[in-house]
Every structure is written in C-alpha cells, then in structure tokens.
Design brief:
CATH superfamily: Vaccinia Virus protein VP39
CATH class: Alpha Beta
CATH architecture: 3-Layer(aba) Sandwich
Number of domains: 1
Helix content: 40-55%
Structural class: alpha/beta
Order of helices and strands: HHEHEHEEHEHHEEHH
Distance between the termini: 37 Å
Number of strands: 7
Largest sheet: 7 strands, mixed
Shape: globular
Strand content: 15-25%
Number of helices: 9
Amino acid sequence: MLINKEEREILSDLFQIIKLQGRNEFISLDNKVKIEQIIAYLEILHAELRKVSQKRKIILVDSGAGNCYLSFLIYYYYQTIGKRDVEIHCIDYNERLMNNNRELARRLNFEHMHFYGCDINDFCMDQKVDVVYSLHACDTATDKTMYLGVRHQARIVLSVSCCQNTITMKNQRLKAVLRHKAFRDKTIMMISDSLRGLLMEQQGYKVDVFDFVSSRYTEKNTMIRSIRTNFKKHLDAKEEYRIVSEEFRMHPHLEELLANEPVRKELIAPAAEVAV
C-alpha cells in the first residue's frame, strides 16, 4: 500500500493540527523529513494489519512515543481512510509530554488513544496486544520496546533504532576501520540490530531487517520487523548470536532483559494512565 495523492491531502489536515504543516501548506525541511518517515512507517504497518481480521479491534502500543506523531497518524488514518477499529497506548517517561498528547487526543476526539508517563519496563496490559512499535526510541528504549513485545506475545513488533549510547564494540581485526567514527557508528548500528534480530528469532519471531525509508530522509532508517510465527529456521539463532557477540564483544540491553527480567506475574494490569 502506497499513500496516494488524495489520501495525502486528507492526512494533511492532521499534519496541520499536530503542527508538522502550516495552514498555508508550508512545510519546513525538518517537518517534511518527519512526515515522509511516519508515512513510510504507516505503509509498512498497514501491510501487516491487512492480514489481520477486520472483525475485531486492533491493540497497538507505541514505546518511547515522544510527540506521538506516528501514533496520531495511525489513529487518524484508520479513522478516516482505513476504516477499522484501533486502540493505541502510548508510553514515554516524559509525563508532561504525555499530558500534552492526551489533551490533544481529547480535542481531536481520539477516544481510543491512551497515554502513560512511565518507563517502558513498568508498563503491562491484561489484554491481547497485536502490535508493539517504536520510531527512533533512544538508546535502550529500543531494547525495552522489543522486550515489551515479547512479554506480551505481540504478533508484530516494529522497531527503528536511534542513538546507541550504551553499546560498546571491540574488534582488534577491524581496528583500522573502526577508528573512523563514521564507520564505527554505522558498524555499531548494523551489528547491534543484527544481534537484536537474532534474539527475537530465539523468541519465535520471523525477523527482517531493512531500510524502511530512503536515507535522504534519515540515516537512522533501518527497521527490525519481527512477526510471531512458526517459521522454519534456517540457522541456529542462539549459536549465531554467540559468534557475533563474542566477535565484536557487543551485548545489546535486550539480551539482559530476556535473561534476567522474566515477565513478572504480578504485572497484570495496565500502568496508570497519565492524568491531565
């Protein structure tokens, strides 16, 4: 599914409301980049949701949601164009931001959008979750997003990493290459996302890693798409993970979460929603 010109015109009304576009149709370069990213993300999500029955409500969770541009777009799209029942829960540690988003959702009458000012690891729901997603969740928030999807057994987990501040990498054989910051940053992103993908495969997900949008919009354009399915594995994900992590001496936070923080049975109710 590609958003056509007519649908973009419909979506432009939302872009004005969330201040990504001026009422005179002016769009700054930064906002144009943001719009192209969230539209591309929506297209990938919609391709997966078309495979899900339209007879029931779809439950989505946005981790490290920030300004919630993507979630507002998803909700608005399915309200006006996609015509299906969705419920979106947005999580971010910034309570002030979540309060602002909640007030905007109230003014838009987006009654099935909910906002929580808490750490991603403190959030839990007592209902089936279909999709967990994040767009440029900073640092370990990417790992927490994927762990949230695993412990809720979400059918779809979509994640696009941002900064990798807590990840270190060492490899003597590539020392001459990694001493260059540009190469080091790209290699850290490539290896860390590969390791996250292998961890998700160990949890029963089919994983694809790909560029979800052109690099002219952002260099941080790599998506990890994990679909829970009984697919036939073509490699030993556990052994491959061991080889790569040992070679580069790299251990993403997701490894620690899966190993040391099993799902707590007492977390059976949703985290308290932020009050306005």
